[in-house]
Amino acid sequence: MNREEKRRFRSNAKKRGFTDSEVDYVFNHKPNEPLLWEGAKVKLDTIWMRLSPDWYNDRLRRDYKEWVLAHKDEVFTVVFDKKRKEPNSIYTLKNNPNFDLMVCLEEDDNQPKWLFFSGDLILQPGGTSKPEEKEIINTNHFITNEQVTKEKIQDAIQEALNREKNR
Question: Rounded distance, CA 86 to CA 79, Å?
Fold first, then answer.
């Protein structure tokens, strides 16, 4: 971010009610833990969450925003959403089932619980220790490179063609 972009960002953030220290926090922000595990202790990164464009449009529910602001100083325990834990769920990290990018908070009393992106949470001391990590090929995708090979793609195409012939 160059000087002009920083000035513009600071000006826009102040118009939205952010203090200088909050804006400085953003400029010095270090990425949060990309993958979280069950039992990890976390706090909500409300400054980072409030800077999201989604916070100021209708993409986030008002009761969600109110809940986040009401619990901004609390420490929570990470739990995985039941549907995301299912073995063949499209959300499961196939190569690393002990970790997830989207988590729930055990102390959340809402039904269903709110789902949080791990980048919006700050890891805190305490909680269960980090499980042993398998090698993560690419955390931006839910399928590893090993799982998608030319042979598998060709097999799937051939299988689809055979089904069409048999109709």
Answer: 14
How many Cα atoms within 13 Å fall on the side-chain side of residue 165?
Answer: 6
Distance between CA atoms of 87 and 34, rounded to whole angstroms?
21
Confidence of residue 73 (pLDDT cuts 50, 70, 90): very high
For residues 124 and 41, the answer to whether their CB atoms sit within 8 Å is: yes
**Strands of the chain, DSSP E:** 40-44, 75-79, 102-105, 116-117, 121-127
List, for residues 97-108, the tens digit of each pLDDT value.
666 777 889 999
Count Cβ atoms below 10 Å from residue 10 Cβ, excluding itself: 16
N-terminal to C-terminal alpha carbon distance within the chain: 58
Q: Say if CB 63 and CB 152 are below 8 A apart.
A: no
Tell me: cis bond preceding 31? Omega within 30 of 0 counts: no
Write out the two tokens for 85. 């834990």
pLDDT tens for residues 7-49? 888 888 888 787 887 777 777 766 655 678 888 899 998 888 8
